[in-house]
Specification:
heterodimer, A: 110 residues, mainly beta, 5-stranded antiparallel sheet, 0% helix, globular, B: 113 residues
Chain lengths: 110, 113
């Protein structure tokens, strides 16, 4: 069945270092969303990617959707302590089946 | 504040019992989604309603049911509760029926003892 794999599970970085999390699906996605969840908080929508090969940027965050629409990545440049949290991808199949990745927990050391 | 309201914030109940979780979407949003977040299962999509109709179903158990009322608020009913149902239950809303930007509520933490 459909499944979205996300790696790594944890990432510890020094402030100022870059960070990347990856999501992969065995089948083609219709679109993919990214969320951030701070400790003790609720998921907050970051972005949605729909087109094959799409790249979107939000300040220090760069989101990519693979050409085959089976993988995606989130890259943060020069991390800050405010980036701490868990980043989830959510793969959507046929526009209505929604599967979250297991999340990547990011810790940033000042 | 996302504009999505969930009540109650915390709920402690015994195994075998039935509970109802309530969600009020953001003003104007027609879609409501329910999610379960537990330590071992991660974040799982349960069900989506759009303008009162069931739109999509995820990994929702038969013991669980949901509905969306004419005023667009939604309720998630969990019955014959088991210890493994202990989790954080999130509701989210979005403007349209397809998965667009979704705004999450603060969640209801359910503890089954």
């Amino acid at each position: 069945g459909q499944q979205v794999m996300q790696i790594p599970q944890y990432q510890h970085v020094q402030e100022g270092e870059d960070f990347t999390t990856y999501c992969n699906s065995s089948t083609t996605l219709s679109n993919i969303q990214w969320y951030k969840q701070r400790p003790g908080g609720h998921p907050v929508f970051l972005i949605q990617l729909v087109k094959s090969g799409e790249v979107k940027k939000q300040k220090r965050l760069t989101f990519q959707f693979g050409e085959a629409k089976k993988n995606s990545s989130l890259h943060i440049t020069a991390t800050q302590t405010t980036d701490v949290g868990t980043y989830f991808c959510a793969g959507i199949y046929n526009f209505n089946k929604f599967y979250f990745g297991s999340g990547t927990k990011l810790n940033v050391k000042p | 504040d996302s504009g999505v309201t969930q009540t109650p914030k915390h709920l402690i109940t015994a195994t075998g019992q039935r509970v109802t979780l309530r969600c009020s979407p953001r003003s104007g949003d027609l879609s409501v989604y329910w999610y379960q977040q537990s330590l071992d299962q991660g974040l799982q999509f349960l069900i989506q309603y759009y303008n009162g109709e069931e739109r999509a179903k995820g990994n929702i158990l038969e013991r669980f049911s949901a509905q969306q009322f004419p005023d667009l608020h939604s309720e998630l009913n969990l019955s014959s509760l088991e210890l493994g149902d202990s989790a954080l239950y999130f509701c989210a809303s979005s403007a349209r029926d397809r998965h667009t930007e979704a705004f999450f509520g603060q969640g209801t933490r359910l503890t089954v003892v």
